[in-house]
Design brief:
about 25% strand; binds malonyl-coenzyme A; about 500 residues; binds adenosine monophosphate
Length: about 500
C-alpha cells in the first residue's frame, strides 16, 4: 500500500462528516468529501503548472481554508510542501527560495510585486497568488480542474514537507519530514489524546509551523474529526468557539491571554474535553490558574520541528505542571551528557536525545549539519536540557542552544546579532530573552556603540524593519559601555539576562 500521508490521513473521514468549519458557516466550510474534491482540484492544478513528485511547493500565505488545502494537495501530488511564516521579509525569503529551489511559489496578492523578483532570482518556475479569502490566481487555475485525483504513490521515506528552522550558527536549515514521520506522529497523537470523529478542534494557530499544520490538522484528520478554523488567536473568539467545539491546541501565550479574558469561566469551558499546550514552556502558575478558573488541567506536550511531538502528559492520569510528560509510545527519549554523550544516571540533568519514527530525515542539502546533530546510534540531539523523574515524567530545565522562544516562535540570537552588528555605530551586540508576561520571553538587544556613535533604539528599530521578521525584532534595546565577559573573552549572556530580567516584569495577577 502507498505510504502517501494524505491517503492514510483521509482514510478515516466519513465523506459526509464535517472537516473544516468556518465560524460564519460559509461556503468555505468543507465536509470530508468536499475536502477530497477541492484538494483533487488543487493537486491537478499543481500537476498542470509543472509540479512533479519530489518538487518543492513553497507557500507564504495568510491563514485560509484554501491555504490549508494546498498543503494537503501538495502531499497528494507527491510534492514536498514548504510553508513559510507570513512575517518573513523579502530579504529572508530570498534565502529560503534560493535554498529550497521550489518549482512553485504561492504568496498573497499584496506581496506579489515585492516577491516576484525574489522568486525569479531563485529560478522558481511558477508563481501563483492566494489570499486568506481564497482570492488570487490559485482559484482561477484550480477552477477548471477535475475534482478527482489519484494520490501519487509514495514510500514512507519520501519527503512530504520541509520546514526551515534557524540554527545557533549559520543560516536556517530545512528539516526534511517524510510521509512516515508525519503519519506516525498523527496516528500516535490521535490515540493518546483520544481523538474520535465526534471531536471538533478550535484551530487558531498559524499554519506555517509544526503545531498548527501537523499536530492540529493531521491529528484531526487521522480521527475523521472536524476543526473550527479561526483566522488567528483572539481570546474572546476562542471562548465563544468553546460553545461549538471541544478541544483547543495552543501555545502558552494562548492560555495566559485566555486567563485575562473575563468571559473564560467554568461554564464557558463546560463542553470542552481537552486543552493542549506546547511549543514553549507553560508556567506552573498559568497551569494552576487555568485549572482553578475552568476546572481543566491543561495537557502539556513537547516537540520540535525536526521531531514532531516527543513527549506528552497523560490523557488519563496526572498532568503535572512544569513537566512535559512521558515519551510517546513509539518514541525513545534519553538524557545524556552534553559534552561526551554518555548516558546520564536516572534523575540527572543532561541533553534530551530522541529516536523514533517521528525523527526527521536530516537537513535539506546539509549532510554535515545533519551528522552534527545525531549520535552514532541514531539519537537526535535536541539542544534542550532536561531530566526524567522517578515516575518517568520528562522535565525541561533549560536549553543548551542559544534560542529565545517568544509567543511560541523561535528567534535565534545569532541571526539578530548579525543584523545588529552590520549597522554603522554598533560595535557589538548580544541578544537575549527576558521573561515577559504575555510572550513568555521577549527578545532584547544589548548593544555596545562604536566610539562617538549616538545610534539609539529608534534608529536600530528602523534599520531592522526590512531585514527581520517583526517577531524577531527586539522589543527593547539597551546600551552598555562594556559587555560582561568570561575568562575566555566570551560574552556572558547569563549575566545580561540577570541584569535585564525585570524589563518586562510580570504584572501581579489574581486567580
Ligand atoms: C506577533 N508579534 C510577536 C509575536 N507575534 N512578537 C514576538 N513574538 C511573537 N510570537 C508582534 C506583532 O507583529 C506585533 O507587532 C506585536 O508583536 C503585537 O502583536 P499581537 O497582536 O499581540 O500578536 P498576535 O497577532 O496576537 O500574535 C501573538 C500570538 C502569535 C502568540 C497569538 O504569535 C501566535 O499565534 N503564536 C503561535 C506560534 C506557533 O504556532 N508556534 C508553534 C511553532 S512549532 P507590532 O508591529 O504591532 O509591534 C513548535 C514545535 C512545537 O514550536 O513543539 O509545537
Ligand atoms: P521549533 O524549532 O520551533 O520546533 O521549536 C522547538 C523547541 O521548542 C524545542 O526544542 C523546545 O526548546 C521548545 N518547546 C516545545 N515544546 C515545549 C514545551 N512544552 N516546554 C518547553 N519547551 C518546549
Amino acid at each position: 500500500m502507498s505510504a502517501n500521508l494524505f491517503t492514510r490521513l483521509a482514510a478515516a473521514g466519513d465523506p459526509a462528516a464535517p472537516f473544516i468549519v468556518t465560524p460564519d458557516g460559509t461556503t468555505l466550510s468543507y465536509s470530508y468529501a468536499g475536502m477530497r474534491a477541492r484538494t483533487a482540484q488543487l493537486a491537478n492544478m499543481l500537476v498542470a503548472v509543472g509540479v512533479a513528485p519530489g518538487d518543492r511547493v513553497a507557500a507564504q500565505t495568510e491563514k485560509g481554508v484554501d491555504a490549508l488545502l494546498l498543503y494537503l494537495a501538495a502531499v497528494r501530488a507527491g510534492a514536498v510542501f514548504l510553508p513559510l511564516n507570513t512575517a518573513y521579509t523579502p530579504a529572508e525569503l530570498d534565502y529560503f527560495l534560493g535554498d529550497a529551489e521550489p518549482r512553485l511559489f504561492v504568496c498573497g496578492r499584496a506581496a506579489e510585486a515585492a516577491l516576484a523578483p525574489v522568486a525569479r532570482k531563485a529560478g522558481v518556475a511558477a508563481l501563483l497568488t492566494l489570499d486568506a479569502d481564497g482570492g488570487g490566481t490559485v482559484a482561477g487555475a484550480a477552477a477548471a480542474q477535475s475534482p478527482e485525483f489519484a494520490d501519487v504513490l509514495r514510500s514512507g521515506d519520501d519527503l512530504a514537507a520541509i520546514l526551515y528552522t534557524s540554527g545557533t550558527t549559520g543560516r536556517s536549515k530545512g528539516a526534511m519530514l517524510s510521509h512516515d514521520n508525519l503519519w506516525s506522529n498523527a496516528a500516535t497523537l490521535k490515540d493518546i489524546w483520544h481523538f474520535t470523529a465526534a471531536d471538533r478542534l478550535i484551530h487558531a494557530l498559524p499554519i506555517y509551523h509544526v503545531h498548527g499544520l501537523f499536530v492540529a490538522t493531521n491529528t484531526v484528520m487521522a480521527a475523521g474529526a472536524a476543526m473550527l478554523f479561526l483566522p488567528r488567536f483572539d481570546a474572546r473568539g476562542i471562548v465563544a468557539a468553546m460553545g461549538d467545539a471541544n478541544v483547543l491546541m495552543g501555545v502558552p501565550t494562548f492560555y495566559s491571554r485566555l486567563l485575562d479574558e473575563p468571559a473564560l469561566t467554568e461554564e464557558a469551558a463546560r463542553g470542552m474535553r481537552l486543552f493542549v499546550s506546547g511549543s514553549a514552556p507553560l508556567s506552573a502558575e498559568v497551569h494552576r490558574r487555568f485549572r482553578v478558573r475552568t476546572g481543566h488541567a491543561v495537557l502539556e506536550r513537547y516537540g520540535m520541528t525536526e521531531t514532531g511531538m516527543i513527549t506528552s502528559n497523560p490523557y488519563d492520569g496526572d498532568r503535572i505542571a512544569g513537566t512535559v510528560g512521558f515519551p510517546l509510545p513509539d518514541v525513545s527519549v534519553r538524557i545524556a551528557d552534553q559534552a561526551t554523550g554518555a548516558i546520564s544516571a536516572q534523575g540527572e540533568v543532561g541533553m534530551i536525545e530522541v529516536k523514533g519514527p517521528n525523527v526527521f530525515k536530516g537537513y535539506w542539502r546539509k549532510p554535515e549539519k545533519t551528522a552534527e546533530e545525531f549520535r552514532a546510534d541514531g539519537y537526535f540531539v535536541t539542544g534542550d536540557l532536561g531530566r526524567i523523574d522517578d515516575r518517568g515524567y520528562v522535565h525541561i530545565v533549560g536549553r543548551a542552544k542559544d534560542l529565545v522562544i517568544s509567543g511560541g516562535l523561535n528567534v535565534y540570537p545569532a541571526e539578530v546579532e548579525d543584523a545588529l552588528d552590520a549597522l554603522p555605530g554598533v560595535a557589538e551586540s548580544a541578544v537575549i530573552g527576558v521573561p515577559h508576561a504575555d510572550l513568555g520571553e521577549a527578545v532584547v538587544a544589548v548593544v555596545r556603540r562604536e566610539g562617538g556613535s549616538a545610534i539609539d533604539e529608534a534608529a536600530i528599530g528602523a534599520a531592522l524593519r526590512d531585514r527581520l521578521a517583526r517577531f524577531k525584532q527586539p522589543k527593547a534595546v539597551r546600551f552598555v559601555d562594556e559587555m560582561p565577559r568570561n575568562a575566555m573573552g566570551k560574552i556572558q549572556k547569563k549575566a545580561l539576562r540577570e541584569r535585564f530580567a525585570g524589563l518586562f516584569a510580570a504584572a501581579e495577577v489574581a486567580s
